Amino acid sequence: MATVHHWTGLEAKALRLALRLSVRAFAERLGLAVSTVSKWESKLSATEPRPDTQAILDTALGRADAAVHLRFETLLSEMAGTVATVGRRVVASGPRAWEYESWADDLDRVVVALSRQNFAFADSLLTRWLSRFKAHELDEKGLYLFARSTALLGDLKRDQGVVLGPLSAQHSYAGARTVFSQLDIPRRVAQLDLSLAVVTEMSGKLEVAARNYETLAVDDRLSRRDRARARLWVGTALSKDGEHDYATRVMQAATREFEDLTEPDDWSVAHQKLALARRGVGDLSQALQFIDIARSSGTTDSPMQRVRLDTAHGHILLSDTATQDDGILVLGQAAKVAAQYGLVHQLRSIEGVKAMIEGPTGPRQR
């Protein structure tokens, strides 16, 4: 809410207009003579109410609801050009209720934008709020929104492939975790631990990531779905590290959990991961079965998921000399979509797949 450090006739007029009162009705509310209010309005910033009247105006503003405060600040902003000192006399005493509501609404929009890989729009929404407030200025509700914004910024950086460094997913996740720890919200802290484990895996530290996932897979701070995702990602890290058979068993357990939870998107992703694990041991028939299930199930058709599915599918097709040409085409399409949406990490994965399969003169013969 706004606070007036020193009232003049200008601020008094703005308050009257914000309250939508006539001069007479405003004077009656304040318990003053109509001539006093008329004097303020004729002289504006050239006159100042007496100290006792300043207190009366403070009380009237303090009792006003949020809509009146918003109108009052808007009117003063419009009047600011007429008096140079207005901006110094009226200040906001912190975020206001309607700003918190707008902030929360914008975070919902960020989630949608990230699901569609609309990174530019998501970044603009997050920057709007993270650049507006400092954490030390906020109350608990504001800190919660600040931490959630910072965590979503981490998601954005992760999806863009900016994993490590001062402006990275890791940096944002760590900052959000600190604030949620300060607010004593264990579930959010555990979710950030899970996100940081993903960053560890993406940076190539597979054994460390697998151990972190194993711990989180039995962490009661997390929801059942998040624990199942942690279990799935144990298998992902192990599969990348060459432990394909055990990874398959772990991922199949997670898949059953997703089925029990009725989570079709997670169930689809699990089959995609299983397909790659079976490809790792040379079981291409089962790998194709799993990837076909993944491609035909799930409800989310985001660019990110299309690229992931096509990359996995192409990887499997490239592993068989009979389908290598098809694999090259599928990976090429995945690379185009990844480049279009700025999915840098996925582009690197596609190049990595091609590098593993192709020799100096083209695809290896198996």
Automatic annotation (TrEMBL):
<feature type="domain" description="HTH cro/C1-type">
    <location>
        <begin position="13"/>
        <end position="42"/>
    </location>
</feature>
<protein>
    <submittedName>
        <fullName>Helix-turn-helix domain-containing protein</fullName>
    </submittedName>
</protein>
<dbReference type="Pfam" id="PF01381">
    <property type="entry name" value="HTH_3"/>
</dbReference>
<dbReference type="InterPro" id="IPR011990">
    <property type="entry name" value="TPR-like_helical_dom_sf"/>
</dbReference>
<dbReference type="InterPro" id="IPR010982">
    <property type="entry name" value="Lambda_DNA-bd_dom_sf"/>
</dbReference>
<dbReference type="InterPro" id="IPR001387">
    <property type="entry name" value="Cro/C1-type_HTH"/>
</dbReference>
